[in-house]
């Protein structure tokens, strides 16, 4: 039975928009509603006509809230969507030739009217501010119930100056490093087109020196910001996107189907294992994940084992002086990343390719002579 989920989807989007400081593009909102930008704009136009949202054109533009959430109810949003049918059942025919069916229709019609009246009344009792407060309570309860303070391997793949902190506070699921379970919410941050301006993804891919038939792993892939770009860069190869969160794995799998990328597959990892087979990948990319690792050295050994003999590993993370990213206390200096990778048997150095407020550490398997030299140095 087909259901009209527009009200649910729009309420979801509006509550996430409340948590954003600036405009959100139609493309990002469309992903959150699992629809396309054309349909999204049509839906948002009805809300704009009622003064609930407003749109800004041009560079840096998008949709923003334009109302007091305490004055807008779920019924108001329902009406702005054109008052779609509330019930999915109905009479077999509205002009029966049978007296029995006339009686059935009359009884059902009264029941339907009573049910719709009750639903509309209930929708009118709940404001968006009430929903927002309920979200905060639920997140706080979940955080208290699951808080353990343990570190996890999860990358944000692109939080802005305040977004990393916002995700920690608004999506906390058991410690400050396990706060990334809502993929629909996070795609509004991680895949925001504004991220392209400072992430310089083309430079990152240039550092990887990819070939079309390579196998590439995106470790801590999140919503797939880099994974989809990698998949397009290796059309005859394969991209393995790993993540700790089943929700992220589901999201990337669906995104691969939606964007027609058959060479992209998502794999569930664990806090201690990357999910990559030994000697299976040509390149490993780890973006904004290393500062979440509780046991970087141990994890590095597993990643090193996954590399092919000529494989290379790349770590991208925020510099200690960056204007965006996690709190300074959570950041990891490139020297610490290099030490962990070298302890895992790799040869590592800072890349000559620079990014705004970020560094790239690249590593590869040591040559036989380099390993022998290091062994002699230790002795």
Descriptive report:
By secondary structure, this protein is α/β, with parallel strands linked by helices. The protein folds into two domains: 1-146, Winged helix-like DNA-binding domain superfamily/Winged helix DNA-binding domain (Arc Repressor Mutant, subunit A, Orthogonal Bundle); 193-378, 3-Layer(aba) Sandwich (Rossmann fold). The protein is built from 15 helices and nine strands. The strands form two sheets. Strands 5-4-3-6-7-9-8 form a seven-stranded mixed beta sheet, sandwiched between helices. Helix 12 (246-258) links the parallel strand 4 and strand 5 (264-268). The longest helix has 27 residues, at 99-125. It is elongated, with a radius of gyration of 25 Å. It starts with 5 loop residues before the first helix and ends with a helix.
Outline the fold blueprint.
Layout: H1 6-18, H2 26-32, H3 37-49, E1 53-56, E2 62-65, H4 74-80, H5 99-125, H6 128-146, H7 163-170, H8 183-190, H9 196-199, H10 201-208, E3 215-219, H11 225-233, E4 238-243, H12 246-258, E5 264-268, E6 281-287, H13 296-306, E7 307-318, H14 334-343, E8 346-350, E9 358-365, H15 368-378
Parallel strand pairs: 3-4, 3-6, 4-5, 6-7
Antiparallel strand pairs: 1-2, 7-9, 8-9
């Amino acid at each position: 039975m087909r259901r009209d989920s527009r009200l649910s989807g729009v309420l979801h989007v509006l509550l996430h928009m409340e948590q954003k400081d600036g405009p959100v593009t139609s493309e990002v909102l469309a992903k959150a509603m699992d629809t396309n930008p054309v349909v999204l704009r049509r839906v948002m136009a009805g809300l704009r006509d009622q003064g609930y949202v407003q749109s800004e054109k041009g560079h840096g533009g998008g949709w923003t809230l334009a109302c007091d959430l305490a004055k807008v109810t779920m019924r108001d949003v329902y009406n702005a969507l054109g008052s779609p049918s509330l019930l999915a059942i109905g009479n077999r025919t509205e002009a029966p030739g049978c007296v029995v069916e006339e009686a059935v229709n009359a009884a059902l019609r009264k029941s339907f009217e009573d049910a719709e009246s009750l639903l509309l009344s209930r929708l009118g009792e709940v404001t968006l501010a009430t929903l927002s407060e309920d979200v905060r309570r639920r997140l706080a309860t979940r955080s208290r119930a699951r808080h353990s303070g343990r570190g996890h391997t999860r990358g944000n793949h692109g939080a802005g100056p305040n977004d990393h902190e916002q995700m920690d506070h608004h999506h906390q699921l058991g410690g400050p490093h396990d706060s990334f379970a809502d993929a629909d919410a996070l795609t509004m941050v991680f895949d925001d087109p504004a991220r392209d301006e400072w992430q310089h993804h083309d430079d990152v891919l240039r550092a990887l020196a990819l070939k079309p038939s390579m196998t590439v792993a995106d470790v801590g892939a999140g919503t797939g910001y880099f994974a989809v770009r990698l998949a397009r860069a290796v059309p005859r190869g394969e991209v393995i996107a790993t993540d700790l969160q089943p929700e992220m794995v589901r999201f990337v799998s669906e995104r691969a189907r939606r964007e027609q990328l058959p060479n992209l597959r998502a794999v569930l990892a664990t806090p201690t294992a990357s999910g990559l087979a030994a000697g299976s990948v040509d390149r490993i990319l780890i973006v904004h994940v290393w500062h979440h690792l509780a046991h970087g050295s141990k994890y590095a050994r597993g990643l090193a084992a996954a590399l092919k003999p000529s494989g290379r590993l790349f770590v991208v993370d925020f510099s200690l002086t960056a204007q965006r990213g996690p709190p300074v206390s959570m950041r990891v200096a490139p020297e610490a990343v290099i030490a962990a990778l070298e302890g895992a048997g790799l040869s590592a150095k800072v890349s000559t390719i620079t990014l705004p407020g970020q560094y790239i550490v690249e590593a590869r398997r040591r040559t036989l002579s380099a390993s022998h030299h290091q062994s002699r140095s230790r002795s």
